[in-house]
Amino acid sequence: MIKKTLAAELIDIIPCQCQLGESVLWHAKQQAIYWVDIENADLYRFFPINQVLEKFSLPQRIGSFAFTNNADQIIAAFEQGIARYNLNTGQLEWINQPELHVAGNRFNDGKTDRQGRFWAGTMVENSNLSAQNGALYCLDHQLDCHQKITNLQISNGLCWNNAGDTLYHTDSLTHKIFQYDFCKDTTEITNKRLFARTITSAFPDGSTIDAQDNLWNAQWGNSKVVRYNKEGDIDFEITLPVSQPSCVSIGGPDLDWLIITSAKKDLTASELAKAPLSGNVFIYKLQGATGVAEPICTI
């Protein structure tokens, strides 16, 4: 069998200049790219076919979100909890706020599993307690919110393999990406094991799985997006013209675009002068890899 050559060509840069771009998703029906700017409490939508960029101002900062069967409505992990939010009317309906009582924590990375449940984790943004921690939560179809992984500082990198029976997750500050066995029926997580370790300057951030079951990870602080094969070895990497790539998704009409958000948060004037594209979204056309359709949240 001849192995496909893997390559990536930069084909577009969306000049959004986000403080903290994150949670990028491809909407197949709309043929649009969505992402958030956490710090400015904005959600963006970009239509590649006509280069139209839209921005929605949100009621508070948002860490991640999911598409629903209602084209105007998302499930959002706002800083204070999980809610339904209508992009047209601005109607906000809180579903669960499990850490509302924890000052200094906010919701961060999240995703929909293959069964349509919404998962999101929290991070310690400003520690008010000596042993303050975040956690990863699952919001099920009964709208119950279950704590699944505890003792986290920055919950991140959540994704599943294509069969939906392996979960990937990282606590970014540990420089480690873990694998878990995942029960699709009960959401039970077992058999934690180390999948990959990043170098000291690279903090594992947002991840996605491609159609070949490889994991793509944005590595904050290291200017790279890397692909890990199923054994956890790096088999491809992209070096970006920015230091803080933050999240990845695979989309496009043929599911062969690697879409990458970035951030300019906390960069000095000198650092921004060296990397003026920081905060933009980058689109690379892949050769030898494709993605899978993003699950719809059905809670």
Give a nutshell description of this structure.
It is built from one helix and 24 strands. With about 300 residues, the protein is mostly beta strands. It has a four-stranded antiparallel β-sheet with strand order 1-24-23-22, with no helix packed on it. Strands 2-3-4-5 form a four-stranded antiparallel β-sheet, with no helix packed on it.
Describe this structure in words.
With 299 residues, this protein is mainly β. It is built from one helix and 24 strands. The chain has a four-stranded antiparallel sheet, with no helix packed on it. Strands 2-3-4-5 form a four-stranded antiparallel sheet, with no helix packed on it. The longest helix has 6 residues, at 269-274. The mean pLDDT is 96.
CATH class: Mainly Beta
**Lateral strand order in the biggest sheet:** 1-24-23-22
Residue-averaged pLDDT: 96
Please count the helical segments: 1
Rg result: 18 Å
Sheet with the most strands, sense and barrel status: 4 strands, antiparallel
Q: What gross morphology would you assign?
A: globular
Strand content: over 45%
Instruction: State the order of secondary-structure elements, H for helix, E for strand.
Output: EEEEEEEEEEEEEEEEEEEEEEEHE
Second rung of CATH, namely the architecture: 6 Propeller
Domains (count)? 1
